[in-house]
Amino acid sequence: MDALNAQQLHGFSPALDLIAIVESSLELKEDTNRDAPLCLLQLAPYDPRHTVYTLSRCERHSISHPGPIHMYVYEEEPENLARHFLLLSVLLDSSLLPKERMEIFLELHSNAMLRERTATYLENRGRELEALVVSLSSKGELPTANASRADSTTSASSNSIAILASILDISMLKFQDRDKLVDVFKAYRRSVPFDMVRAWDIRSRKWYGDRFDFRRNMIDWDYHMPLLQAGTPGLDPASGSIIHFHHFRFWRMTGIAFELRDSHYNEPNRSLISNAVGRTKDFKDRNGQDVGRSVSAWGYWGDILNSPYHCFGIVSEDPSFFKITNKQFGRTAVDVAEHNVLSLLHELRTGEPWTPHSSGGEAHRARVARGPTSVADLEEESNKRQKAEAACKEQQQQQQQ
Question: Could you please report the per-residue DSSP string of 245-310?
Answer without folding.
Answer: HHHHHHHHHHS-----SSS---EE-GGGEEEEEEE--S-B-TTS-B-S-EEEEEEE-S-SSS-THH
